[in-house]
Amino acid sequence: MSSNENFQNVASGNATVGLQIGKNTGTVASGPSPVDLLKAVLDQSPIGDEERARADREILAARNAIMAGDNAEATLALTRLARWTEGIAGYGSLIGAVIAVVQGFGS
Fold it and tell me: pLDDT tens for residues 45-87?
């Protein structure tokens, strides 16, 4: 790129245009994590209070393991969650998708 090249960002309405140049190192996250999205779905589910408390414990365990960089432990917590929610339509595949994302964090 030569120094005489011109760049122009155009926006209309209430849009914001910006340019950020730099290097990101470490973990960069934006928005809720897949585990947080899973918790939001389970919070809206028709499960009872005891089951919800159990789900919250496993989700917290998964979240803490991810923050500690222990994707294997996060996967175990989510697998436990998947086992006892397998009778609730759609949750098994949703949790399976979150497990796949968590396992990809270390890649």
Answer: 887 888 888 889 999 999 999 889 898 999 999 899 888 777 7
Task: Give this prediction's pTM.
Answer: 0.64
Tokens representing residue 98 in the block: 């979150």
Angular region, 53: left φ>0, alpha ψ -120 to 50, beta rest: alpha
Q: How many domains does the chain have?
A: 1
Residue type at 70 in one-letter notation:
D
- Domain residues for 62? 34-104
Which residue, among 52, 103, 95, 42, has the nearest Cα to 73 in the 3D structure?
103
In a domain? residue 27: no
Domain assignment present for residue 15? The answer is no
